[in-house]
Amino acid sequence: MPKYVITAKRKLAPRVNWFRIQAPLIARRAQPGQFVIVRLHEKGERIPLTLFDWNANEGFIELVVQEVGKTTMEMGRYNVGDHVLNITGPLGNPTHIDMYGVVVIVCGGVGSAVCYPVAKALRERGNKVISIIGFRTRELVILEEEFRRISDEVIVTTDDGSYGVKGFTTDALRSLLESGVKPGLVYTAGPVIMMKKVAEITRRHGVLTYASLNPIMVDGTGMCGACRVTVEGRTVFACVDGPDFDAHKVDFDELAKRLAQYTEEERIALEKYLNTVSRGG
Amino acid sequence: MSTGGSRVKKKRVPVPRREPAERIRDFNEVVLGYTLEQAMEEASRCLQCPLNFAPCVKGCPVHVNIPGFLRKLREGDVKGALEIIMETNPLPGITGRVCPQEEQCERNCIMGRIGDRINIGKLERFVADYARKHGIRPEVKIPPSTGKKIAIVGSGPAGLTAAAELRKMGHEVRVFEALHEPGGVLVYGIPEFRLPKEIVRYELEYLSKIGVEILTDVVVGKTLSLRDLLTEYDAVFLGTGAGTPNFLNIPGVNCLNIYSANEFLTRVNLMKAYLFPEYDTPIKKPNRVAVIGGGNTAMDAARSALRLGSREVYVLYRRTKELMTARQEEVENAEEEGVKFMFLVSPVEFVCDDKGRVKAVRLIKMRLGEPGRDGRPRPIPIPGSEFELEVDAVIIAIGQTPNRILFKDIPELKLTEKGTIVVDEKYRTTVKGVFAGGDAIRGESTVVKAMGDGWKAARSIDEYLKTGEWPPEIKPHDFEAEN
Q1: Distance of CA B372 to the CA centre of its chain
Q2: Which of B349, B350, B351, B385 is nearest to B367 (CA)?
Q3: What does each C-alpha distance from A42 to A77, B165, B474 come to in angstroms?
Q4: Which of A68, A204, B160, B476 has the smallest number of CB atoms closer than 10 Å to its CB?
């Protein structure tokens, strides 16, 4: 059995961790926009995480993980030398990398880790890349340097104005489009409400928009339909038909509801875990 | 025949089972199985037909020497019995539990003419269980390596059987599995109360002992391409199953708490969601559940839902009871446990509440019409007969199809319009050196048919490795039309 050993770890922001993990087979085939399914240990669940970066020669992949519940919080306590029991991938379709001219990347929170490899590939393809990355507040800002290296322009927004431009990413996108910028593509990843708003804005401007969707997944290989979403009135499986979809055709309201399906169970799992941890487990 | 006459015991030795009221409280096994004495007695009822005639052997897709193992068993030689079974069947603890023996080995048992047929399934199961509990292992001689390497894609019943057979022929065998645990439908589909996962793990250990290597977390088509495998291996066997669930194309199908049977059973079986929060994967524990479909998967889903604590579980089927495809034994088990059946109904809509959760299924009554293409009467809706059934969860078990995404990178691999892989009578696909079997070529079928395919495909693969011959054109064989 391959051991997925953690070889480097960094804290990017409170509750946001970056991991470098040995996974040579995945690193060899990974492409921008793809994800992996991770299971930490024998009793663990399977969760999808987007590939942040990878290196085929050195056989590692990199993941950025925000602590939002039991599994991600538990992973946050994993350190260099620890190993993850299972990683499957690369899964999903790669993002369609093409020459679009100007590309605007709009991502919120840890969604910026989803956008990063896509933005990088689009830039390498010769596109002019404008990246809008948004966070709630200053201390949550991540990956700014990385985005500066691979973008022609970076706009950092914070909801409270504690850093960069005050407001939401969608505000920045709106003013950009209103100022006359005509992108060939807008690419978005982050909270569902943000992606929905991005789609509404770009629809008015007639700009092609891809959203990287983040529904609940179990196997990630198309065998269960937990991740099904409605796109243009049709049911599709995000894990094999996506995760990128034409944002103007996605039923975001349904996606938001389906994401909340296990809120109660997620709370129970987290509480139990926090109790164990506080007892020194 | 020397064993005839007055010594013939007409009645089967009954198999102990747990009472419904007790067994629906947990996921432990329902059927308890024979004791050694009971097994010896049941085995002694066999008339010992000669091997070249025995109808039971002909009815077994992997041709287990049934009179042979029963002879050993009635002498109390469990090890001898095990070795005879495992000459052709690497998974006796599994097949003894999940095969529909009434349609296979037991179907034409001669004893059926004068009394009960021999309970071959439960005896095979007894041999496997007794051996496991007493640490009895078969002695297997692996011939010297042929130096040939074979890749098996998928670790379900077809792939595992092919792997064991090819390994016993001296080939080097590596199995690639997409999930984190091998076994395919044996681990994610069939519930613990019918097939304990401990038994699956134990029987898979035997495969590693004889030198079959199993790699999990490898999705062929993604982690590795089929082309990669073709350059590195002398032959490839595709046993990738039919794992893509069909959903109903009706309004409300994406409401919350509507599951495919695959998702529901994967959460319960593979991820052990029934032990949440000790295990991390959650599952909804609904009060009133509708299971849609009439096959074994529907029975498994319904009985699992009961065990999660559902107060009412309905199986909704569009045909009649007689036309259900589920095993009779499983339908009876479900009835005993309190599953309610509604026949001749079909969903037309799922009604959601304001939070998007399913609250009712709208059904239409059906009547049976003329036989369709599969020879079974077609259900026809009765206009104006719609009614609602209140539920808080739905499990859709209306069948699965092969996963097409697996082979996207190899367009030469020809598929049928149903998405199954085209093969000839020797399990050869349209790509040289690539064979396929099980649900991947049949569509959704049974464990033992998949094993039969793996078993026969292993012989074709061996022949190909020796001769290198491949026909210029593959003549599609219709495996569904067999029997």
Answers
A1: 26
A2: B385
A3: 17, 30, 44
A4: A204
What is the ipTM metric for this complex? 0.94
Residue B417's Cα: distance from chain center in Å?
23
- Say whether the peptide bond before residue A191 is cis (omega within 30 degrees of 0): no
A146 within some domain: yes
Taking the CA of residue A52 and the nearest CA in chain B, the distance in Å comes to: 17
Q: Which of A44, A87, A235 sits opposite B280 (nearest CB)?
A: A44
Superfamily of domain B246-400: FAD/NAD(P)-binding domain (3.50.50.60)
Considering the domain architecture, whether residues A190 and A256 belong to the same structural domain is answered as yes
Architecture of domain B149-243+402-482: 3-Layer(bba) Sandwich (3.50)
Nearest to B149 by CA among B175, B181, B188, B117: B175
Report pTM: 0.94
Q: Which domain holds residue A242?
A: 102-260
* Residue extents of the structural domains in chain B: 20-134, 149-243+402-482, 246-400
Chain B touched by A225 (CB under 8 Å): yes
B249: Cβ contacts below 8 Å, ≥ 6 apart: A235
For B39-60, what is each residue's pLDDT tens digit?
999 999 999 999 889 999 999 9
Rounded to a whole number of angstroms, the distance from the CA of B220 to the nearest CA of chain A is: 10
CB-CB neighbors (< 8 A) of B219 in chain A: 88-89, 91, 221
User: CB–CB of A258 and B247 under 8 A?
Assistant: no
H-helix or E-strand containing B448?
Answer: helix B447-467
